Amino acid sequence: MAVYTAVDDLALTAFLHDYDIGDLLSAKGIAEGVENTNYVMMTTEGTYILTLYEQRVDAADLPFFLNLMNHCADKGIATPQPLPRKDGTLLGELCGRHAAIVTYLDGMATRKPKPLHCAELGRGLAAFHDATLDFGLRRPNALGVASWGPLFADSRDQADEVVPGLVALVDDELGVLNASWPTDLPQGVIHADLFPDNVFFIGDALSGLIDFYFACNDTLAYDLAICINAWCFEDDLAFNVTKARAMIQGYNAVRPLSAAERDALPLLCRGAALRFCLTRLHDWLRVPEDALVTPKDPRPYYERLRFHRSVSSATEYGL
Amino acid sequence: MAVYTAVDDLALTAFLHDYDIGDLLSAKGIAEGVENTNYVMMTTEGTYILTLYEQRVDAADLPFFLNLMNHCADKGIATPQPLPRKDGTLLGELCGRHAAIVTYLDGMATRKPKPLHCAELGRGLAAFHDATLDFGLRRPNALGVASWGPLFADSRDQADEVVPGLVALVDDELGVLNASWPTDLPQGVIHADLFPDNVFFIGDALSGLIDFYFACNDTLAYDLAICINAWCFEDDLAFNVTKARAMIQGYNAVRPLSAAERDALPLLCRGAALRFCLTRLHDWLRVPEDALVTPKDPRPYYERLRFHRSVSSATEYGL
């Protein structure tokens, strides 16, 4: 969480000349977003988020992310909507960075999601999935199942120092997942990072989905598995089946899961737990000296993985 | 610039129960304010700044700061106005910190002040001074003339390593200022830190004065001297007399300077340059290892001090 690039009044005023969104009133750098610099910006026309894309985001991916948000917002999904510049494009340049302006979404992330929030999230996720079905651009999942083996190879030597027994578990898990990962389930665009930080609520009602910078084409039900991992475990790592049931039922009410998707859910949950365990392990072992962001502990995802390995059918998730 | 304390939805919703400012819509931590944690907060009633006071601010001073802003805002000065709680007080507690909510001021700090901005600032500063004359609370200036000798004593051993010749210059300057500092000029509450970061403009018009956490009782014209130092030197350290003239004339148009104040201006400017040179030197020599804030270079204020020592009368400031 950091403001990597300082934007001043002169540069921002010039940048806004390319937009039809009124005159600048204020802009404040916010501590939101790990990869990019974000400002809350107010003009005589309204409130917006200004994002400057820092080096860690591949510029070639920006049209996918921005057009996806635009496509979904047009369909009534609560995603930020990029504002078009006068030339019709969605991307400009500010302070040497690619930059975009999107609508400001009211709402706040919730620190302690309740089952009602999980049900809302399930419905919102399914509506997002439905909305992406006719989205024309494609982006492969760079962190999909095929990446997990090579990703672990980079950290394998030190993995047991972080979590004793991790090497044996991951080696076994990679064998199972590489052999059994479903390839014939419905595909579409997934958010792929829909943690509670990235979902806004007003009271109990979902008001915003943000941070689409991991979005990609993949198995739709895998996105639900990511959310089960991210939302349905308590701080003490206990699985909360009431939340999972609420989330899955919410999802199912909007986009009914096929029998194959239901049957695959335990495996998809194992994959999702492994993916976050491995990326966190990778970052945990490579904290830059000048890090502005504290790396996340891989252990809670190791524990989730162990839980999902004990699950024999999707009924254990409340289905 | 940092968000030291993370505020979540549950704590903030509970905090707002003590206010009559509507229901929470959003709150985003902003990278503004060196000493405190600030959020832009939106409710169903409007947009506000939420401030959590961190350890570096003396809690005993908070009533002075908050009541001063309230007093000035009531008189139409463009200061943030603290929102009263239901019990009528201005200060609450949130996440273990003293916390207050103030009105949100539109406008942006300007990176390159023009003479028009300086004239606006002069008028705004004078109006602020006039507004404070009947303010009832008092706070001594902990960084006033009497503090400069002891402050320098703490850094004297290493001062010449930072700026060769600094010890001789400051020793001489302290002798002059301690002997000649005016004590009979008009007194009142001064802002004492009105750098361009702390002044908002919309276009060329002043729209906000913020960050009152150095405000104190002292010589009013000394506040103008601080602003001359902060606003009227270019990046190459050249003195811009056009800006100084605009600022002083703007001030004088609202609160006419007495002959004694005009005559004292060169000495007050020397004091202001010395004060910021010494506090910056102090911080420069004591950067904490985990510093989130880069210390400011004392050298530009050493150069300002040398400039003001060469000034023989206030006419050289454009008067």
UniProtKB/TrEMBL annotation, chains A, B:
A GO term, aspect molecular function: ATP binding
Family of this protein: Belongs to the pseudomonas-type ThrB family.
InterPro entries, alphabetized: Aminoglycoside_PTrfase, Homoserine_kinase_II, Kinase-like_dom_sf, Pseudomonas-type_ThrB
Span of domain Aminoglycoside phosphotransferase: 27-257
Gene designation per UniProt: thrB
Pathway: Amino-acid biosynthesis; L-threonine biosynthesis; L-threonine from L-aspartate: step 4/5
EC numbers, comma separated: 2.7.1.39
Keywords: Amino-acid biosynthesis, ATP-binding, Kinase, Nucleotide-binding, Threonine biosynthesis, Transferase
HAMAP family found in the cross-reference section: Homoser_kinase_2 (MF_00301)
Lineage: superkingdom: Bacteria
Reactions catalysed, as given in the entry: L-homoserine + ATP = O-phospho-L-homoserine + ADP + H(+)
Name of this chain's protein: Homoserine kinase
Source organism (scientific name): Acuticoccus sediminis
GO biological process, one term: threonine biosynthetic process
